[in-house]
Amino acid sequence: MKHVYRWYSPNVEQEVQLVRWGTYGTPVLLFPTAGGDAEEVERFHLIGVLMPLIESGRIKVYSTDSIAGKAWISNQHSAEYCSLFQNRFDTLVYEEIVPLIRQDCASSDIEIITAGASIGAFNAVATICRHPDVFRLAIAMSGTYDLSKYLDGQFIQDFYFASPLHFLPGLDGPVLEQLRKRLVLLPSGEGEFEDIGESWRMGNMLGDKGVPNRVDPWGTEWRHDWVTWRVMLPKYLAEFAD
Predict the structure, then answer these.
(1) Mean pLDDT, to the nearest integer, of 119-135?
(2) Of 72, 102, 155, 224, which has the fewest Cβ atoms less than 10 A away?
(3) Greatest distance between any 2 Cα atoms in the chain
C-alpha cells in the first residue's frame, strides 16, 4: 500500500521523493509543514487517521518533501534565492509530480485534490491558483499565507509570482476562469499559535476574484498543531473526495 518514488529533479537540482499510500481512489497531494519531509505526515499520524478513506478506496495520498519551505526557514539563503526556488518547486510539482501521479492512477487527465497545514497550506493554495487545470480542490488548514516577512521589505518579482496574496489581484484570463470553477477550503483553529486572520485575508482575496472559497473557524479550543489537523483533514476529505 505504501510506495516511495525517488528521482533526481532538474528543476530543483537535487534528489526528491514522493511517497504514496493507497491503491485506488481520488489522488490527494498532501504538502508537509515548512521543514517536513515526505513522510512527516505519517510520523505525525495524519496518514493513520486517513486509513479508513484509504483502505476503502476513496483516496490515494501522495506527499513530497517541503523543499522550498526548508529554504525559507533555513536562514542560509537570500530572499531572492528562496523566491526563485519556490517557483522551481512549483515547476517540480506541475511538470514532474503531477505526471507521475496521473501515471500511477492510470489516467492522463485525473484531477487532484491538494492539501496541507501551515506553510503546507500556502503550497496547497498556491498550487491550485497556479494550476486549476489539474487541481480541483484545496484544503488549506491553519494557513500561513504571507511569506513577505522573509523579504526584508524588498520587492522581488519571483516572489510576486509565487505568492497567491500577491499575484491574485492581477490574475486574469483563462487561468482565472478555470480557477472560478474550483473550491478552496480554509479551515483554521483560533487557539494557541493560530492566526485565523491569515485565512480570512486569503479568503477575501479569493472572493474578490470570484473564486469559490470557505473559511471555517474552528474555535479557541483548536491550536496550531497536528492534533487539530488530524481531525480536520479526514472530515473534509470524507465530504469532498468523491
Answers:
(1) 97
(2) 155
(3) 49
